[in-house]
Amino acid sequence: MAPRMTLTTQLVLRALLADPAREMYGLEICAAAELPSGTIHPILARLERLGWLESRWEDVDPREAGRPRRRFYRLSGDGVTSAQIALARAEASAAKLARLRPGLAGGAR
Amino acid sequence: MRRRHRTARDAEDLALARRLADALEQVQRQAGNAAELAVACRLARTLSNNRALAFAPQRELTRRLAAQLDLAHDLAVSEDFDTAVHLAWAADAQAVAALLADRTREREESVIAAREAVVATRRARAELHNRVDAARKYVSPLGSDPVGEARVAVAKVIRRLARGTATAGRPGLVCRNLLGLALQVLPLAERPRFAEEFRGEAAALPRGQARYAARQLLHAWSLRRALLRARPDRSRS
Q: From the candidates B183, B190, B231, which should be mutated to test the interface with A, based on the most A CB atoms within 10 A?
């Protein structure tokens, strides 16, 4: 099952796909996707529930580090493939729409 | 039995309407306080997601109210105080009118209660006008531009509020309060995880922690919906 491929979901997936092996916490994903904080957690939760994402707590002692632990996310093995397919489909749909209705898809008017 | 249930629902709705009126009154009286705007924001969001208010026009209006108050809060945090107050003020009339119109249309027995709320709101607004006039008279001998000076002072307070008591690794007071509100929206089982996750992220921000927390509050319902769509969790810890 695929999530709704909204623009923000696509941006999050692209940010994670840029380096699938790299783990990122919420704010890093926000920065990479150029989205404001708050918008990404619902997306991350959906993707995690679908099994596209894996998450884990940062391996530090909050007392020693002097700050709370961070939650790291990265695409799962299946998630990488699923995300690539879903993004390719979304791009194909956008391209099709651009041909049919240039104005709507941001194409030439 | 059914009647009793309905009466309970009416009482709940009325309580919500009163809370809204109270909260918005607070916004108008203490709009220099970003946390107050956040309270109203949370209340508006609660209302827009309330089952009893699930009528399409009502939801749309409360959403608009919530959006206005969200924006007002953001602006207050970012020191654009005049616009924030203006927006919070504009949101008030719309929200109260929407709530009361809905109640009068849907449940006739709420009319009396609704009238009481209207009267209370009008009284509160009249009182507010009186207080503003009194305040202007009081501060006028103090300087050439007392209102402007007061605004500068308020902007400083807001700036301090926005920073909270933030230090590296410790989210400020406003941030913690806003995050606390956001967590209340989330399913009980998920709160500890997101409490730590949000605190961890906020701690990474040297500035703008309140803004971060406000945004989490704005999107808390969306996160709640995502979490409630139960699927096997594949998290590694």
A: B231
User: Exposed e or buried b for every residue in B53-63, given b needs 16+ CB within 10 A?
Assistant: beeeebbebbe
Global pTM value:
0.50
Lowest mean pLDDT among A15-19, B39-43, B161-165, B214-218: B161-165
Kindly determine whether residue A48 and residue B234, on different chains, have CB atoms separated by under 8 Å.
Answer: yes
SS3 for A76?
coil
The answer to whether residues A52 and A75 touch, using CB atoms and an 8 Å cutoff, is yes
Between B14 and A27, name the one with better pLDDT. Answer: A27
**A24-25 vs A53-57, strand pairing mode:** unpaired
- Point out which residues pair with A75 in neighbouring strands: A53
Question: How is residue A64 written in tokens?
Answer: 């020693």
Structure tokens, A70: 């961070």
Q: Measured between alpha carbons, how far is B39 from B120 in angstroms, rounded to an integer?
A: 20
pLDDT of the residue at A92: 83
CB B114 within 8 A of CB B96: no
